[in-house]
Design a protein that fits this description.
Length: 243
């Protein structure tokens, strides 16, 4: 890639649920106080994604005060019926996000689709349109809305706040199509917020001791091919390897 193509956008919503994995065991979910790398990657992938590219989240700016709100829920039981639970959501959220894309070097069959300007301008146009698909803030019931912005503009509630450190939290997943192996790994890190801005480390820079093997998976190509203004439309389905 000859130059870095970075995109800025604002994402906001009434509620968000960036679930702490430790709270999933009891069925009562609790949100992290800040968005995870994987959640933000999912948001920009909903705006625009092709298997040719891999989105990298550079940083996020927390615009509004971190507030939580509890809500009653009735999760479905595996044995049938529903149970009662209390979910802890983030309320009234707004973030400025800066991201760029890199080529998925494991997709050698899409080398002809590595047109940097094409993907950049299509992605920017999709931000202006509000995204190609619905945007969710960590959970299906938390609808999000995106619009273009210039990162750093505007007044945030944590401007000149100083440093705020967080404990170990989930960073993201290493998927088979991006890893080049038939494996699924999870990454963790210790984020730090400085004057409302969190700078994410690159997935490759996450410490090995903070990575966890999840399970064997393989990436299966979708054979369907479509032609449009964005060119070749291929994709991947993540499928668990049958032992």
């Amino acid at each position: 890639m000859e130059k870095e193509n970075r995109l800025d956008f604002t994402v906001s919503g009434k509620y968000a649920l960036f679930t702490d994995p430790l709270t999933k065991i009891g069925g009562e979910k609790c949100s992290y106080h800040i968005p995870t790398y994987e959640a933000l990657k999912g948001i920009i992938s909903s705006i625009y994604w092709k298997p040719t590219i891999v989105w990298i989240i550079d940083k996020v700016r927390v615009m509004k005060r971190i507030r939580t709100q509890t809500r009653s829920a009735k999760p479905i039981e595996y044995s049938g019926g529903n149970s009662l639970a209390i979910y802890t959501y983030l309320a009234d959220i707004e973030y400025q996000v800066q991201a760029h894309f890199e080529w998925n070097l494991h997709r050698t069959d899409l080398e002809k689709d590595r047109n940097e300007n094409k993907h950049f301008f299509v992605a920017r146009r999709m931000i202006e349109k509000g995204g190609r698909r619905d945007v969710f803030l960590g959970a299906r019931e938390c609808q999000g809305y995106v619009e273009p912005c210039k990162f750093g503009e505007g007044i945030g509630d944590y401007d000149k706040y100083g440093e705020l450190a967080f404990d170990l939290m989930f960073h993201g997943f290493d998927y088979p199509d991006e890893l080049g192996k038939s494996e699924l790994w999870s990454r963790f890190w210790r984020p730090k917020m400085e004057d409302g801005i969190i700078e994410f480390i690159h997935p490759k820079d996450c410490e090995d001791k903070l990575r966890k093997f999840v399970r064997s998976m393989q990436a299966q190509k979708i054979e369907t091919i479509g032609l449009g203004e964005e060119g070749l439309l291929n994709g991947y389905i993540e499928a668990e390897v049958k032992q």
